[in-house]
Amino acid sequence: MTRIGFLGPPGTFGEEALRTQPDLVQAELVPIRTMLDVLAGTQKGEVDLGFVALENSIDGTVNESLDSLIFERDVLIQREVILRISLHLLVPPGTAMADVREIHSYPKALAQCRMFLADRMPDVEVHAATSTAEAVRYVGEERPPHAAAVGTALAAKLYGLEILESEIEDHPDNSTRFVLVAPNGSPGCVPAPTGHDKTSIVCFQRADRPGSLLSILSEFASRNINLTKLESRPTRRGLGDYCFIIDLEGHVADEVVADCLRNLHAQLAELKFLGSYPAASEHAPALRREAEASWQAADAWITSIRDQIRR
Q1: In terms of CATH architecture, what is 88-165?
Q2: Are the C-beta atoms of 252 and 243 separated by less than 8 Å?
Q3: What does the pLDDT average to over 42-57?
Q4: Do the strands 227-234 and 242-249 form a parallel or antiparallel pair, or are they unpaired?
């Protein structure tokens, strides 16, 4: 059975996101202490696949995951999964709001309900945990006095807590993008094109000079390739030295994308390929069906023309 590592313990948003995927939920889901350990374990073969958060619509990039993908690990993205995030204030049964004096959760989760905590619980002590589920497990199993946790409804069920306040996140449109990764070099480690795909790359400049980013972006503009993400990260080689993380529409199997990457590889100091994979959106299945139908119609058209070639 395929083993998939995710940020544990059971009950995290990562597990919730995994459980939205009918094929992945059939695998053995392995909780791992940190997302860095998930990626390390995937590359080392301790699990077959890894599943980590990459960015949040409110807080932005999950730097520990992205930096590990860029600088530390040789894995390729297999798919992306987007999960709507709902944060709940969880307490032992019978606990009232006035009884709570400390709150435990993952720092990014606490940041996403900052206004609720400031307005409703301004004097409560805040304690960081390695994940939302770890915070809920601690409160549920250890039962520290006057403690609550911020976490998922799934974790509340697993660890015997009640939802005192539901959906306490400050912004209703709160979503997290997760990615499934596999070791680079493993069989079929680049998924086949589906007609609605993304490709992720990292561009390292030869030198910091005027127009260097423009020259990179012109490769996409000249081929009418749409970018869905552009971000810079320090290269760890010195102040002011940055690389660029780019997500683009299309698959490396597409000739226009391959031609673009070929040119970039020739002009840059380094171009790291992070994967070509199915894009996630509520309209993705319809878009893939439309792309397949369009390709089949185009193939039939070109075949009809070739059939007229004089022999």
Answers
A1: 3-Layer(aba) Sandwich (3.40)
A2: no
A3: 95
A4: antiparallel
Token pair belonging to 130 = 């390695």
Distance of CA 134 to the CA centre of its chain: 20
Who has greater pLDDT, 295 or 237?
Answer: 237
Q: What is 190-280's CATH topology?
A: Alpha-Beta Plaits (3.30.70)
The structural domains of the chain, with segments of one domain joined by +, span 88-165, 190-280
- Could you tell me the pTM of the whole model? 0.82
Per-residue model confidence as pLDDT tens digits over 93-134: 999 999 999 999 999 899 999 999 999 999 999 999 988 999
Do 88-165 and 190-280 agree at the fold level? no
What Rg value do the Cα atoms of the chain yield, rounded?
A: 23
Task: Look up residue 247 and give its two tokens.
Answer: 């997500």
Question: What sign does the CA torsion over 289, 291, 293, 296 have?
Answer: negative
- DSSP labels, 281-302: -TTHHHHHHHHHHHHHHHHHHH
Structure tokens at 253: 């199997």
Total Cβ atoms within 10 A of residue 19: 13
Mean pLDDT of the chain, nearest integer: 90
Phi, psi torsion values for 180, nearest 5 degrees: -95, 130
- Please check the confidence at residue 261 and state whether its pLDDT lies above 90: yes
**Please, which residues have CB within 8 angstroms of residue 75's CB and are 6 or more apart in sequence?**
39, 42, 43, 50, 69, 181, 182, 183, 184
Distance between alpha carbon 292 and the CA centroid of its chain, in Å? Answer: 26
The backbone region for 10, taken as left when phi is positive above 0, alpha when psi lies in -120 to 50, beta otherwise, is beta
pLDDT of amino acid 284 = 57
Residue of 137, 60, 128, 49 whose CA lies nearest to 41: 49
Q: How many CB atoms lie within 10 A of CB 245?
A: 20
**Other beta carbons less than 10 A from residue 137's beta carbon:** 23
- CB-based contact 244:231 (threshold 8 Å): yes
Tokens read off for 124: 């409560």
